[in-house]
What does this fold into?
Amino acid sequence: MNDDFALFAPEEPQPTKIKNVEVKIIQLLSWPKKVRYSTIREGRKAVEGFFRYLVFLALATFVTQTTCDYNMYFYTKMWDQQLASRKTVIDPGFISVFNDIHSYQQIWDFIQFTFLPLLDRGDFRMNDSASIYKLTNETKQFIEIFGSVHNRTILHGNVLLGPPRVRQIRVKKGQCQHHPVFSKYLPECYSHYTWMSEDHEEYNGIKWQSMSDIWTTPLWGNIEIYLGAGYMISFSYDNEENILLIKKLREDNWINHGTRLFLLEFSLYHVDTRLFQLVKLMVENPPTFGCIPMIKLRTIRRESFFNNPSWTMGLVTFAFYLLIFINSCREVYLINAMGFCNYIRVLINLADFLCCLLAYLLLFLNFAQFIIIEGVMRHVKKSDQYISLDMCWEINIVYNNIAGLVIFIAWIRLLHFIVLNRTIAIFVNMLHKSKKEITGVLLILFAVFMAYAQCGMTLFGGNDPQFRNLLTSILTMMRWTVGNTQNDKMPNFSQSITWIYYVSYVIFVHIMLLFSFQAIMINIYDEVKQVAMTRPSQLGTVIALFLRNICDKFCLLICVKRRQRSPVDLDAKGEYESDKRIDPRQAAAIAAMRLMEHKNPTNVSQPDYLPVRLERAAKRVKELEEVTSQALKRITEYYNILQKHYNISEMRVNDTESVDETVI
It folds into this structure.
């Protein structure tokens, strides 16, 4: 048994079948996660784990993309073009476009001249050759739909799930204070929207409704988050009645200064592609007046894991969750063996734990969406009234977010297998060693982003949409960090302040922080590279042996003769590789030692070595005599000068005599 399993497997397994099964299960659960390519045996295990993980990754990719369909993008784009970008000529020189709405009257013009004619242009026409359905009973696609569909089927198979409806959310009067001078001209004052200031009283004979009453969810606008359902009016399937209703609402000024949000919503079901479409046309009215239009579209598939007619999808989903269950058992086994705190500190364990946990959450959300969709279809078969898909909308958004996180973790987990050579191993160790430095730099960047974002909001928030709120300002700072400055969109109301702000940000972030962080990372990389000891990878040998085995089996099949190969040591390890650098002072000392060894060789015999030493000693003595002779001459000259000054007999030194024969 391998040493990797010695901690988990029993020392003396019994020869019974039950014991062998237990050993196999323990070996499967305790399969080591660490990937090594130092030996052929370790390389084979790593390659086997890599291909097993590729199978899991392929299944995860397929399962997480089930909420996406090829037709969903074009379906959403079509409705955006039909509603938000469509231009309708109302009067000569006046064109109505939803994205260009800036007044209350334009809202009514859009509904009357663009939206209602679109609903009236159905698919069923008795004498129209362009219609796709001449008679209702000519197709079986509408069997699941209750009642007559000839007056609520538009744009090639889109069935309205109930008549469209309009809603508005209002605020109470007198929630703001104004100067008494303006009371004569502005007797009513409406503040900005909050949950406390929302109006719940009856308005024009219409009662206020909560979100639970009409089964809806909060609305996220550009300005506020709206938590109430508000006042609701439903259209009908008769175009003439809808036109009269719009004219009446316009005459009654149903939208006025107290309106903070106007909403036109409807739901569709496409019988050909089995797709649901939820459309919300929103217009926000801030207390400063004006209109901010926004469209929200969401496409939802009817199929899920539990009602998909494709057997391929069911098989793939079953295989994926079977692997998830096996991995979950393995992770539970490791948690019991290591302890949860020690287990979760390892990054690979954390990735596997999150992947399994989120996969089970995906299954739960998919089941919840299946229950809601089936309830919607049961309601469709029984009634033609409005059906709210808001809850399914929210579940679908959460599901897509979690599915994206699962597939992201799964693909990032693949990097664990690509530590193939010394360079990648050093890079991984560098990231592991620089955790504190990276955390510190991120904190500094966050502080700088917050400082410049708050400053940008103060300076340019009232004039530039890039700084209209804190989140947008932070995103603008991040975009500037990567070089996407968009100079044509920079604030131009004060050029001097703008360029001082921008240049200071570039100097502080790009030149100081980012370059300093780069220098820190290079220094850490050099330190890791200096001390890292790695063995050469045997992955190439593993692949070569695999190809050689294939060739041998092919030759055995063709020639009926087995080739004789020399045995290969599966556990042989190569020598350690290192890039240890030598300090310059240490290199100079080593060079001096080499020079000394060259001048004083230790492998020379004594008869040859002594003459060389004597000759070298005589040379040094001669050099010493020359130096001392010059020094004594100068000392003698100074002494004679002193004798003359004090009338003392002179001291003469013969230049040709030796130093020891000096005469005074």
About this structure: Residues 118 and 154 are 8 Å apart (CA to CA). The longest strand covers residues 259-270. Residues 1-18, 650-664 have pLDDT under 50 and may be disordered. The radius of gyration is 43 Å.
